[in-house]
Write a structure and sequence with these properties.
This is Glycosyltransferase. It holds the Pfam family Glyco_transf_4. By secondary structure, this protein is an alpha/beta fold. It folds into 2 domains: 159 residues, Glycogen Phosphorylase B (Rossmann fold, 3-Layer(aba) Sandwich), CATH 3.40.50.2000; 147 residues, Rossmann fold (3-Layer(aba) Sandwich), CATH 3.40.50. Helices cover 38% and strands 17% of the residues. The longest helix has 18 residues.
Length: 339
């Protein structure tokens, strides 16, 4: 049986990378031969490589599967993918992100090709053209997944909204106290909005985990109650310190950080974005804010809850993930699309 290739273009670590790692682990759990294939080998190692190696997941760069010289040029990537498919005959290529989607759709030949659309925002510049071409060429894929209905609505081809998912094996409830942001420091994720919330609650220390293009600008004149922790190579060591997760995103699909937190009994306060309302039942397993201005009062609500109500929300968050967003609940749906 040929391998399942999970194809993506990746340098930093974010939601797509988290999704791919969880997918690879899930497929391995179901005894499926899987390999993560990275489109481009950059001058410095992609952040996902360390995660894959630590988890003993098979991975390689696309150029290592062909005789075509390593290059970031689009035509070269098409040649690399075409030759790799002919040489190794994978069972399926499951692509993630517009660049991987386009390369695999245009060069996989007779290999079954599946796409997942992760991004809900409208990009700018040249990337906007790539995104447009990706969405309107979706008919070339054997199956198209999206991570939210809002993303599906932008694609003029039949799609299947797929719950993001994580493995819940061995997870325990966090006993942490930190109020935290976890994610890429980029405009769509709203780390600047997180800082604006912190400014309104100077008596509380806020913790920011992640790196990205806004890191330098955020560090200037940030309030004294913000702690910048930077990129974390292993969030498993961090989650036990967190007691409340804030998602201040301007655009989202279904944030993986929310699943990671809730699976550990960490409630989430989130903006009303993407598919978050399918995950969070307001005041039952977390809170949904109508605007960023609502965050301070919602944080205060959480801090002032008595232990009985707090534990009720914690257990509801955990049960939501186990029932609807776990590997055991979602991976069989994905395997069906590979046939």
């Amino acid at each position: 049986m040929g391998e399942i290739w999970l194809l993506l273009d990746s340098l930093t670590f974010g939601g797509i990378e988290t999704h791919v790692v969880e997918l690879a682990l899930g497929l391995k759990t179901f005894e499926q031969p899987v390999r993560v294939v990275l489109l481009t080998e950059f001058d410095r190692p992609s952040a996902i490589v360390g995660k894959l190696a630590a988890l003993e997941l098979n991975y390689c760069y696309l150029h290592q599967l062909s005789d075509v010289p390593s290059s970031t040029g689009f035509m070269s990537l098409l040649k690399q993918c075409r030759q790799a498919c002919l040489r190794y005959q994978p069972k399926v290529i499951h692509a993630h992100g517009y660049k991987a989607n386009l390369v695999s759709k245009l060069s996989s030949g007779t290999t079954r090709q599946v796409s997942t659309f992760h991004s809900g925002e409208t990009p700018k510049g040249l990337v906007r053209l790539y995104d447009l071409f990706d969405r309107f060429s979706a008919f070339l894929s054997a199956h198209n997944f999206t991570v939210s209905q809002a993303i599906s609505d932008k694609i003029p081809t039949q799609t299947h909204v797929l719950n993001n998912f994580i493995s819940v094996d061995g997870l325990t409830s966090s006993q942490g106290k930190q109020v935290a942001f976890v994610g890429r420091l980029s405009h769509e994720k709203g780390p600047d909005l997180f800082i604006s919330v912190a400014e309104q609650l100077p008596q509380i220390t806020f913790h920011l985990y992640g790196d990205g293009p806004m890191m330098q600008s955020l560090g200037h004149d940030s309030p004294s109650n913000i702690v910048f922790h930077g990129f974390q190579s292993d969030m498993r060591k961090v989650w036990p310190e967190i007691g409340l997760l804030l998602i201040t995103s301007r655009y989202e699909g279904l944030p993986m950080t929310a699943l990671e937190a809730m699976a550990r009994g960490i409630p989430v306060i989130s903006t009303r974005v993407g598919a978050i309302e399918s995950l969070i039942s307001d005041k039952q397993n977390g809170w949904i804010a109508n605007s960023i201005d609502d965050f301070p009062s919602l944080i205060q609500q959480w801090l002032e809850l008595d232990n009985q109500l707090r534990q009720k929300i914690v257990h509801s968050a955990e049960n939501t993930i186990t029932s609807h967003y776990s590997t055991q609940a979602v991976i069989p749906q994905i395997i069906d699309s590979y046939r």
